[in-house]
Structures are given as C-alpha cells and as structure tokens.
Amino acid sequence: MTNRLKTEALAKEVSAAMERNPVIIKSNPHGLILLLDPSVPFQELAEAVAEKFRQGANFFKNAQMALTFRGRELTSAQERQLVDAITENSKIRIVCLIDENEEEAKFYREAVIRALEEAESGGQFYRGTLRTGEVLETEKSVVILGDVNPGAQVISRGNIIVLGCCMGKLYAGASGNDRCFAAALILKPSHVRIADKAARSAITKKVDTGEYEIDPKIIRIKDGNLLMEALSGKVFEDPENSKG
C-alpha cells in the first residue's frame, strides 16, 4: 500500500471513529494527543473530554504529561477549559500544551524533558501569567506555564524555564550557582541575572505591545560571561549545565 493510500485509509478510520466518539485519546513519547471532532458543539465536546478522562482515571493514575489538541481550532479559553476538564476528572498533571507548529513543538519537547527531570529532583511548576508588579520567588528550579510580563520578576535558586513569552526580570542561580540557566519560548527579559553575572535588555518599557515570533533561547554563563543562544537539546546536554 502506498503512503497516499495509507494516509487516506487512516483518515477514513479516524473519521469513522469520530462518528462513534467525538474525543479520541492517542499517546506519543511526550504525552497525549486529543483528536477532537470539529463538528461537535464545544460545550458538548468539553463534557465528552471530562467523561473520557473520568472513565480512564485509574489507567492514567498520577501521570505528568504534555498535551496536544488536534482536529479543530481552539481559543486559549477553550484550551484552558479542556485542560481543567482533564485535571478535574483524573490525577493527570498537564505539564504544558504542545502546539502543532514544529518550531514551537521542538522547544516544548526539550523543555518538557527538562521540566520532568526538575520535578523528579525537587523542582516545581507555576501555572499562569506573572503580571506587572508580581514576584515569584522559589528555592527550587521552576517551570512557568505562562508568560512573564514586563514589570514582573522571577527569582530562583535553580533554573528558570518559561513556556511562554518572558519580558520581565529573571534571576536564576540566586544561590550563587553559576551552572544555572534561564530559557523561554520568547526570551526578551528587561533584566537577567545568573549567579553574579547580570545584563539589561534594550527593552525598558513597562508595557510592550510588540508581537514577536517564536524564537526559543537560553541564557547561561559560559567562559565567565552571560551567553544567549538558540535553545536545543544539545544545550540541555552541555556538561556545563546542571539541574540547579
């Protein structure tokens, strides 16, 4: 069977399954994929998601997973509602949502792996956006499932990973650990400090309404200086980096 025929057969199989069930759960190496019927009213779909995970609660147990939605366009509010439906009806903890955009997904895959390692070694997750004037201070490495807006600040004795846009102040390695790092999907902090090395960004406005493309970056100390570079699995594997 050719690849085209295989694809067509798979599409027919998925379509037939959707007729019986508006929500189909699939797994991948990084978490779950939810295939959502685009023709079902959203509220009905949310109820179907809740019921699906309620029935499978014992199967998933206390799993930590990344999640991808596929099959229909969702607003941010709808994504949050579906995530809540999952977490309220099971013991799953959603680490982050993986977008179908390949560049964004690549960053998430790397960050999820690191995030799970951090959780196992005592790191923590923070879900939500930090707004102007808010300060998040932690004794452990932290993975932020949201944005860090201008005027907000994150202080961690370990590493800082932002699964979103970071335009506030970051202070990683606050214990003096110069092997710590800060990383984000969009990394444009107004001020960043790693251990005893600090730098200020050209962006100094309290409010920045600019739209920025996905451009995953990491800041760390290398050869005694702060270095910002593209984030990749090779960077995470660098022996100069530790878990913080």
Plain-language structure description:
By secondary structure, the chain is of the alpha/beta class. Helix content is 30%, strand content 32%. The protein has helices spanning 3-20, 42-55, 57-60, 76-88, 102-120, 233-237; strands spanning 23-28, 31-36, 64-70, 93-97, 124-127, 135-138, 142-145, 153-156, 160-166, 169-172, 181-187, 191-194, 197-200, 217-222, 225-230. A hairpin with a 2-residue loop joins strand 12 and strand 13 (197-200). Helix 2 runs parallel beside helix 4 (76-88).
In terms of topology, how is this protein built?
Layout lengths: L2 H18 L2 E6 L2 E6 L5 H14 L1 H4 L3 E7 L5 H13 L4 E5 L4 H19 L3 E4 L7 E4 L3 E4 L7 E4 L3 E7 L2 E4 L8 E7 L3 E4 L2 E4 L16 E6 L2 E6 L2 H5 L7
Parallel strand pairs: 2-3, 3-4, 5-7, 6-8, 7-9, 8-10, 9-11, 10-12
Antiparallel strand pairs: 1-2, 11-14, 12-13, 14-15
Give the gist of this structure:
By secondary structure, the chain is of the alpha/beta class. The chain has helices spanning 3-20, 42-55, 57-60, 76-88, 102-120, 233-237, and strands at residues 23-28, 31-36, 64-70, 93-97, 124-127, 135-138, 142-145, 153-156, 160-166, 169-172, 181-187, 191-194, 197-200, 217-222, 225-230.
